[in-house]
Amino acid sequence: MTKAIDQASQKFYDRMTKVLSKIYQARSFEDAYPLVEKALLILFHAQRLTVYQRNRSSKDIVSRFKTGNDLQEIRVPITASSIAGYVALSKKAIIINDVRDSEELKSIHLALRFNDSFEKNIEFTSRSMLVVPILYKDVLLGVLQIINREDDRAFTQQDLERTQEFAELLGQKFRYDFGCTEGPYDYLLEQQLIDEKAFKQLEKKADSRTPLSRLLRDHARLTSSQIGQSLECYYQVPFISYNPEKYYLHPLCEQVNKAYLKNSNIALLAEHGSEMVFILIEDPNDTHRLIEIKNVVGSHESQVCVGLLDDIHQYLGVSIGGPQQDGANLSSLLDELEDAQELDPEESGADTEDVSEEDSTVVRLVNRVLLDAKRLRASDVHIEPGKGRTPTSVRMRIDGVCQEIIQVPATHAKATVSRIKIMSRLDIAEKRLPQDGKFAVRLQGQPLEVRVATIPTVNGEGVVMRLLQSGEPVPFDQMNFSPSNKQGVEELLQHPHGILLVVGPTGSGKTTTLHALLATLNTPEKKIWTAEDPVEITQPGLQQVQIQPKTGFTFAAALRAFLRADPDIILIGEMRDQETAHSAVEASLTGHLVLSTLHTNSAPETITRLLDLGIDPVSFSDALLGVLAQRLVRTLCPSCRQDYNASAEEVAFLKRRYGDDADELNLSDKVKLYKAEGCEECNHTGYRGRTGIHELLVSTPAMREKIYQGATIGEIRVQAEADGMRSLLQDGILKVLKGDIDFDQLRRVTAE
Fold first, then answer.
1. In whole numbers, what is the pLDDT of the chain averaged over residues?
2. Residue 567: is its pLDDT beyond 50?
3. Which end of the chain is more exposed for a tag (fewer CB within 10 A), N or C?
4. Looking at residue 353, what is its pLDDT?
5. Mean pLDDT over residues 473-482, rounded?
6. Between residues 668 and 476, which one has the greater pLDDT?
7. How far apart are CA 616 and CA 659, in angstroms?
8. pLDDT (tens digit, 9 = 90+) per residue, 590-611?
9. Phi, psi (rounded to 5 degrees) for 498
10. How far separated are the first and last CA of the chain, in Å rounded?
11. Rounded to an integer, what distance in angstroms lies between the CA atom of residue 701 and that of residue 561?
12. What is the pLDDT of residues 695-711, one digit of tens each?
């Protein structure tokens, strides 16, 4: 008897080896399946089988390979409500003797059901099933479903063990088909985004309070998208970063204890315009947590996604590794401040400095203001003292416009200012002179860098906090250049040497544009140095330097140092003086591509400004590649903007403002324009975010001749327009017609 069993077992493994050999020799399992379909049925003594595969971008598993021609494809959600879906969710193999026995199904999971709708119009009937997950390194890649033994007997434990062995080997083939990596961060090593030695050092430093993903972002200067792509390659589920403009906490979170979500590192997210529940988890391989949260999600359509631990906690509004010091909202904090005020309003001479800057409510108030500023995408926070016992106003500049957010009671105003000065390492006793400083904090798991300026006023010290938008560069394709400007900039970036200037007033997005341009130039074969004040945007591959004027390390000094450091491309944060401008011209003439900024109002004006600094016109005309002038304009909220047919007067106005080239607009009698309306998403302002308008002056032979001759601004503008330059106003009109902005906002930033 034992000998017969051994022979049967040997026969099975011989057949399995032949089947696997054909599968591994094929380019993909898709190519192999038609060759091994019959052999698989014989191998498992089955009437039918289905092989489900997981799609990284899908919430389902899909029956890509199955016997029978009755259905081309079956999509099964990864939930406990279906047999294949339950196995995919739990990663447990199961044997079912009768799929129509509801009690047997409930003994496996209370929600488990068999969907017989697929068999209503066919001659085949499912009875028993053997279902196993296809895994690699505990990552779900698919499900193998064996249906009905051909001898009508029940599947045995031996059948289950053999099927699991086959599925394990099949998982290795799926791994190659899917591009799976061995570990969550192997992609980063394979792409040489970080070397193995540095990675292991960071891995040793990581713990429950300081996750490895944070160390990779903060110390290895890797972007969230790079880390996310690595996690996707390993876990085979979509990656979601912190993006509050797109995702927000799903109402289901109100039914779950916030502490449970934090401790489980899970956030349930919703997307505007979608009914889907996105289950964001830092380890999608944790089956126990997923089954628990799926019970909360219930019948809602859901999709498991991977996220960074810091991002998950930021969605939840909590901080990692400690009590929440900044979670209270502003209104509740202000209530606490009001309660703390003196009860006798007649005592106007009371000392308002009795409140300490270390008072817990003051600390939380400052943290909350910073958090709300980041959430509202504010660029600056203005703290403006009132007279006497008048409350201090806190205003935020959002999309270029100041909006009052709160008023701090006079009793706590000075303590609030002192708290900010302590964070900035400023002298809290000095209240007669302006002071400048900066600080960096981590709130709710996210780093935030702030530049601080204090200015004495007749009512007390005023404070302006500039939120430095540290993070990743905006992709070049998202800069919203017009087609002609985009083509022009791309052509300028192909030059190996020369000067390209990005100009505009303070806050016009010059640094953002420069880093978008650098991102297209940032390749392994190029050495790039940048000197900035401050360093706001970081990119892997760049050597970025912080200017320190107090120590004598100026832009000019940095530029001189860079020229001894074998650069290909140099970025100078700003040309502030003749020495810097002269050095930049010399650098470009000696074979380097130089990018920089200047505070001027237009592209033609930039040329005369530099010539006024004393730059040699001949050298400058040879060095200049082009000047990109820009402004930022508030964009219409895409959720509520209203379209309407422009009147004849408006069409005539557009043509008149565009100028002699208005024919290229192709304006007809039925021109559609857009206007602001207002909704919850844009805080009823009608505007959300900002976009750029640009004018690009390209240095042509005729333009170089004008520069050499010392032409006036008017002459340079005429030549630039003859060379194809479109003014800021003209580019803005194109974006008005496109529906990005309206004419009211365009007029706010153009002086024409």
1. 83
2. yes
3. N
4. 47
5. 84
6. 476
7. 34
8. 889 999 999 888 899 999 988 8
9. 130, 180
10. 99
11. 32
12. 999 999 999 999 988 88
What string of DSSP letters covers 655-719? Answer: HHHH-TTGGGG---SS-EEEE----TTTTTSSEEEEEEEEEEEE--HHHHHHHHHT--HHHHHHH
Question: What is the rounded CA–CA span in Å between residue 567 and residue 565?
Answer: 6
Q: Give the C-alpha separation, 173 to 169, whole Å.
A: 7
Task: Give the model confidence (pLDDT) of 319-365 as tens digits.
Answer: 444 333 444 455 555 555 554 443 333 433 334 445 565 666 788 78
> 3-state SS of 594-655?
EEEEECCCCHHHHHHHHHHCCCCHHHHHHHEEEEEEEEEEEEECCCCCEEEECCHHHHHHHH
* Token pair recorded at residue 98: 């009768």
Q: Which two tokens stand for residue 6?
A: 């051994």
DSSP-derived letter for residue 478 is G
pLDDT score for 751? 56
Per-residue tokens: 290: 């997923």
Of residues 751 and 581, more confidence is placed in 581
User: 203: Cβ–Cβ under 8 A, 6 or more apart, which residues?
Assistant: 212
**Distance, CA of 532 to CA of 538 (rounded, Å):** 11
Contact indicator for 613, 580 with CB cutoff of 8 Å: no
Task: Quote the pTM value.
Answer: 0.56
Q: What are phi and psi of 402, to 5 degrees?
A: -75, 135
Helix (H) or strand (E) holding 84: helix 83-90
Cα gap 672→480, rounded to integer Å: 20
**Which of the four pLDDT bands, split at 50, 70 and 90, describes residue 193?**
confident
Element (H, E) at 422: helix 410-423
Give me the mean pLDDT over the 71-82 stretch. Answer: 78
**pLDDT for res 719:** 92
The continuous run of DSSP H or E covering 598 comes out as: strand 593-598
Under a CB-based contact definition with an 8 Å cutoff, are residues 378 and 469 in contact?
no
Q: Which residue's entry shows tokens 């200015």?
A: 455
Higher pLDDT, 499 or 405: 499
HEC per residue, 99-168: CCCHHHHHHHCCCCCCCHHHHCCCCCCCCCEEEEEEEECCEEEEEEEEEEECCCCCCCHHHHHHHHHHHH
For residue 71, how many C-alpha atoms fall within 13 Å in the half-sphere facing its CB? 18
The contacts of residue 296 (CB under 8 Å, 6+ apart) are 252, 255, 256, 268
- Contact in structure between 48 and 56 (CB atoms under 8 Å): no
DSSP category for residue 320: T
Place of tokens 């038609």: 34
Return d(Cα 631, Cα 504) in angstroms, integer.
7
Q: Does the N-terminal peptide bond of residue 534 adopt cis geometry, omega within 30 degrees of 0?
A: yes
Residue identified by tokens 């530049």 is 451
The DSSP symbol for 537 reads: B
Distance, CA of 698 to chain centre: 33
Tell which residue, 479, 567, 569, 559, has the closest CA to residue 516.
Answer: 479
Secondary-structure breakdown of the chain: helix, strand, coil percentages, each rounded to the nearest 5: 40, 25, 35
CB atoms within 10 A of CB 472: 19
The pLDDT tens digits of the residues spanning 94-125 come to 999 998 898 999 898 888 888 877 777 777 88
- C-alpha span between 320 and 443 (Å, rounded): 9
Rounded CA separation 592/596 (Å): 13
Paired tokens of 503: 């100009």
Q: Are 296 and 314 in contact (CB under 8 A)?
A: no
User: Alpha carbon 419 to chain centroid distance?
Assistant: 31
d(CA 272, CA 552): 51
What's the Rg (C-alpha) of the chain?
32
Asked if 738 contacts 481 with a C-beta cutoff of 8 angstroms, the reply is no
Q: Are 592 and 559 in contact (CB under 8 A)?
A: no
Token duo for residue 126: 């499912």
